[in-house]
Amino acid sequence: MDQGLIATSVCLQDYPCIGHVRGMGLFVGFELVIPESQKPAPGTAKFVKEAMKARRVLVSTDGHHNQVIKIKPPMCFDKSNVDTLIANLVDLLKPGVPAAVQEIDRAYDPNKKSTRIQNTTWQAMPANGVQGV
User: Fold this and answer.
1) How far is CA 67 from CA 43, 74, 113, 133, in A?
2) CA Rg value for the chain
3) Which domains, ranges and CATH numbers included, belong to the chain?
4) Contacts of 132 by beta carbon, 8 Å cutoff, 6+ apart
5) Predicted confidence (pLDDT) per residue in 13-70, tens digit
6) What is the pTM for the complete model shown?
7) Phi, psi at residue 32, to the nearest 5°?
8) Which residues 6+ apart lie within 8 Å of 75 measured at CB?
C-alpha cells in the first residue's frame, strides 16, 4: 500500500493543470498550475477541493499560494480507497477546469501577500464539479 498512492497519483501528471506530484507513503501532494505559464493556480486548487468534498472525498490545500492539493488519508486507507480517490480526481479533471475558475487563476497575482480567493464561484458549482462552460 505504501507505494500504491504515490505510484497511482503519478498518472495525474498527464493533466496540464498538474505541476508536480510528490509525497511519501500515504501523504501525497500535487501542485496545480496555470498550464501556459506554470504559475500557481489557487483557484483551481480550491475548485478541486470543494468539488471533491461534494463527492464525499476530503482533500485539503496547502503551499505558499494554496495551490497544492494535499492527500493525507487515515491509516485504514486501502487499495479500494485509492481507486475511489483517483477515479474521482480523474473524473473531475478530465473535462478541464471551468472557464470561471481559469479567469480567477489568471487574475491571481502571486506577488501580492494577502490575495484571498472568494467563495462565490464554488458555491454556484453543481455537486459533480462540472459546470457548463
Assistant:
1) 8, 22, 14, 22
2) 14
3) 2-104 (3.90.1150.10)
4) none
5) 888 999 888 888 788 899 999 999 999 999 999 999 999 999 999 999 999 899 999 9
6) 0.78
7) -105, 130
8) 26
